[in-house]
Amino acid sequence: MTDQAQPPSLPPPTSVGTTTRLAPAILVVDDNPGDIELVRIAFEMSDIEVRLDWATDGHEAMRRLERCLGGAAALPDLILLDLNMPRANGFEVLRFLRDIGLSERIPVIVLSTSRQAEDRRRCLELGAREFRTKPELIRDLVDMVRSLQPYLKEK
């Protein structure tokens, strides 16, 4: 993975779906713009209405969540978190969430290319609800996105 700021190829945060109710908010934390775009497409293909926002590294995610705690924005309903990122990795984000008491309020699903049992153990120990290996095929990603519905609450 490369160290990139938000690339011009990523659209601004968006809603996926067409109804007028306030859709659940998801923060996608990943340094790979292609993976972020695939998550957006998977939600679109799954017909699950969500509001997607993203951070391109763990440091940016922590800053955004601090602003939410300060009242500048609403907290997300779910966080999809990559592990291997520049500036602050997924373990650091999980520790941050635990230390400020958000790991009990916001479910975090780690999506990683790692298949290491130690990574899984550490993530769950730090408060992640689940640890999943990133699917390689879009149809598997769509299935994975559909399986996240129990974590999504409409407002």
Characterization of the model:
This protein has a single domain, classed as Rossmann fold, CATH 3.40.50. Helices cover 35% and strands 17% of the residues. The chain contains five helices and six strands, in the order E-E-H-E-H-E-H-E-H-E-H.
Poorly predicted residue ranges: 1-8
CATH superfamily: Response regulator
CATH class bucket = Alpha Beta
Give the CATH topology.
Rossmann fold
Distance between the termini: 35 Å
Anisotropy-based shape:
globular
- Order of helix and strand elements from N to C terminus: EEHEHEHEHEH
Strand count: 6
Compile the SSE list and pairings:
Elements (H helix, E strand, L loop, with lengths): L13 E3 L8 E5 L3 H14 L3 E6 L2 H12 L8 E4 L8 H10 L8 E5 L4 H9 L4 E4 L4 H9 L9
Parallel strand pairs: 2-3, 2-4, 4-5, 5-6
Antiparallel strand pairs: 1-3
Helix pairs in contact: 1-5, 2-3
